[in-house]
Fold this protein.
Amino acid sequence: MDENNKPNNQNAEEVTGSSIRSLKDLLDQITGRDLGDISKEGDSGLAELWPFPFLALVGQKEMKLGLLLSLVNPTIGGVLLVGPRGTGKTTAVRGLIDLLPSVSASNCYYGCIEEDIEIGGMDAVCPDCAEKYGKGEPLSSLRKVKLIELPLNAKLDDVVGSIDERSQMHNRMRLRRGILSQADKNILFIDEVNLLSDQVVDVILDAAAQGSYTVKRGPVSAAYRSRFILIGTMNPEEGGLRPQIMDRFGLRLAVQGLDKPNDRLEAYNRSQAYIKHPKKVVDLWVKETIKAQNEIESARQILEDVELPEEVALTAIEMIKHFGIVSLRAELTLLEAAKAYAAIHNRLKVTKEDVFTIAPMILRLRRSEFIKKYIETQDVEENEINKIIKKFSTGK
Ligand SMILES: [Zn+2]
C-alpha cells in the first residue's frame, strides 16, 4: 500500500459517511459489493503486494467476527480456524494486516520498557535505555501491531533465537532474537499448526502462556517477552491437534465452504479480479477498511469500561458447567469475548444474548473423548487414593 493510501492519513467519517454505527454494522453491510468494470480489464501484471481485503471475503461471518474479537480483546487467548483447504482461512488472517490497531512498544532492540525499571530498577534495562530514562526520554512509542507469520519449516533455533554468528567472530557472543520475541505485542500466525513439530509447538505455547521465555545457548542466556495473540489454522483432514494444544486456543472458528451458488460465484469473481488487479480491488474496499480500523481502535478503548453484570457472568459459567467442560480457560474466554462483542457494538454492558451468540466459538472442540476418558480414570484413581488414605487415617 503506498503512502497515499495509508488508512491513518484519512478521516473515516469523511470517506464513509456516518450511516454505520458500529464495527458489527459494518461487517453486516459490507457483504454485497459490485466489482464494476474491474473484472473485464486485462492483467495488471502486479505482484501480490496488497493482501486481499479482509472485508472483501464473501460470507464467513463467524470467521470474520472471531478474528476481529481477538483484535479488540487479546485476553481472549488466541484463535484457531478449523476447516478444509480453500475456505479462505489463510487469506482472512493475512487480510488483517490493514486492520491492525496500535500498541505501545519498546524502541530498543532488547525490548526495554519503562515498566522494567519500575519493577526491577535500572539494572533491568540495557545501558542505553537506562541513560535515556535518566534524561526523561521515552523508551517506548506507539506503533502498529505486526502480523508475524511462522514459516512452515521453522526450527527451534529460529523460534526461540540462537547464537548470533557475527558476534562470535568478535569474541563477544550475543543471541539473535527468535520469532517468539519478535512476536511480542504482535500477532503470531501459524498456518497449519497441526503440521508443526511437537517440540516447536510446546515452546510456543509455553511462551504464550507465560508471556516470556528464557534461552540458554552455551555460556549465553537471555530472557525475552512473548505476549502475543496466537492465530492458527488447521485442516482436520491432515491430522489432529493434541487436546492440551487445543485448550490453549480461546476461540475455535469452524470455517466451511460457501453454500449458496451466488456466494461462490461472487467469491470466484472477487478472487479473479484480485489476481489480475490487486491494487484496484484493495482500493474498492479501502474506505470500509479505514472505517473498520477506526472502529477496532475505539472498541479497544471502551473495552475497559464494558460492564459484565454478575447475573450474566453466572449464567455463562453455569452454561459451561452444563456442557461438562472443566477447563477454566473456557470461562475466561467466554466472558472476555462477550465483553469484546459488546464493545464492537459500541455498548458498555454485556447481555446474556451476547454470551449466547458467541458461545459456540468457545464451546466447540472442548469436550473431546480424551478429556472425558481422562476424567473417568481420574475419578477411579481419586477414589483409590481416598480409600487408602481413609484406611491409614481411621485404621479401617
Ligand atoms: Zn534497551
